[in-house]
Amino acid sequence: MAIVFKPLFVLPLLFLSSYAQLWLRPDAYILFNRKKILGPHELFNDPFGDALDYKRKKITDDFGTAPLSDSEKPSVRPNYVGLPNEPRGRWELVAVNSGVSAMHAILLPRVNKVLMYDATIWKKSEIRLPAGHCRLLNQTGEKDCYCHSVLFDIATTALTPLELHTDTWCSSGGLSVDGNLVGTGGFQGGANTVRYLETCKGCNWREFPTALADRRWYSTQAELPDGGFIVVGGREAFSYEYIPREGDSNAKSYFFDFLKKTSDRDENNLYPFVHLSTDGNLFIFANNRAVLLNPKSNKVVHEFPALPGGHRSYPATGMSALLPIKLHSKNNDVIPAEVLVCGGSGHKDAYTQASKDIFYTALQDCGRIRITDKKPVWKREIMPSPRVMGDMVILPTGDILMLNGAKRGCSGWGFAREPNLAPAIYYPKAKIGNRFMQLKASIIPRMYHSSSVVLPDGKVLVAGSNTNNGYVYDAMFPTELRVEKFSPPYLDPSVAVHRPVIVADKAPEQISYDETFQLQIKSTAVKVEKKDIKVTMYAPAFTTHGVSMNQRLLDLGLEDVIAENAFLGIHTITAVSPPSGKVAPPGYYMLFVVHQGVPSVSTWVQIK
């Protein structure tokens, strides 16, 4: 099948390459839509349009978010602003040129560098390949002298250029057991590709263009309990498959009827949310429905009720996270797992209508469900503001940060309006009505193709945003190369006294499953008690298109916290590691100690 379709997918590339300069004309998008240069589902809007046009157009069927049912309504009026002097977080601009626009991003273990990349199709970025090197394009014979992936040093902002040959546009990825990047899919010649990138100095991409059986464009990659990976979905790929050993190729995929049933005219089931549950099954959410897939039997073992209110998958892009998993010194047979899904669009035709300059208000609700219950049900809540194309990251404290995206429209080329500049934090353990708080707004719109990364110091790196075909700086929403860091409220100077420091040589670098281990912290707090301490392990997310793949946080069971030297503030913590790969897939995690809601700088720990 791949051989049959390959010539068909070269044609759009040749067309797009031939009309690259035409895109700069204000009316070029009209021709691009008429010619269907990227297929029937990839439409364009005017990149040089009016960002405020939605204010002048009345949309009679813009119904927004459905009201909560009586049973879902909080007993208290939601307070999204908190107390008058409560910290709201802080933004800082740390770099003005990321080299490439960060369509995809992930923090690499040990080296503490963020891998950023976009796509090769444009043959343009703001960083060239080193030493005058250029790559030769097989399809056209052109030379591409630009870099399309970089390592961003989170301490110095220095860039290390890397050379990609296959197109990573709208691809997926995750970290191997050894902390190396494994990426899948993309566009055209990159669609069947599996890529590998090690963290060693001087290492570059290794790419295998025929490794996957089906084309994986807009697919999701998830880690399994044994450290392997599954790749789910993609455009016109109603299937899933497991990443083969490096150098091998899959002969076939597994047909997945669920994806076909959740696809509609505007698709709305791309980049499905995939979370590994604590029982080893995969929670897969697409559009407004979800199932549990057993990766050993390849059978659906449970179908969940539909999440009411609208559509949550690309291009009606919502956000999702597996909520922090609470562990104990001795765990029950069933370890509870909950999933949160927020935002999206109430209109199944939001994409089609956005191509006609009709930008519907995004959804403002969240659905929360305990997926390990025998009869799970969705419970909805209301966010401080509507959000589509947002990112959802888990903070070291176990709280959820929602940021980026827009309040109107959907994902796509110029298909959104009204940037949502203000992050919101969600406190999963608070009472309904007190779970959300709106934080300080950024001044930089982060629209389509933005990304967010949790850092070892507890800050969140924010980069990307490119709703244009190429690198365009005079558009309605310019291609964005600036990099910011957001400091959540727990990094406010007013609570700095509670911030512990992990003693580097007294923390484990490697742990096994279900074992007791110790680490030491230093604290300036007057008193450090077990009830005020949490030890958390965070798996770095591969973030793209509002999906944070493989993200999870474990709140470990504690046995004791003992003061070793009260004068120096030295304390020894005895904790218990996760029980199995079903709960914590093998690999590298950031290990945090949280004291009274304030996290330490993390250390890296590998579990296997």
TrEMBL record:
Q: Which residues does the UniProt record annotate as the domain Galactose oxidase-like Early set?
A: 499-607
Chain ranges passing through the membrane: none
Give start and end of each Glyoxal oxidase N-terminal domain. Answer: 103-490
UniProt keyword terms in alphabetical order: Signal
Database matches in Pfam families: Glyoxal_oxid_N, GO-like_E_set
Q: Which residues, if any, are the signal sequence?
A: 1-20
Recorded superkingdom:
Eukaryota
Q: What is this protein called?
A: Glyoxal oxidase-related protein
Q: To which species is this protein native?
A: Populus tomentosa (Chinese white poplar)
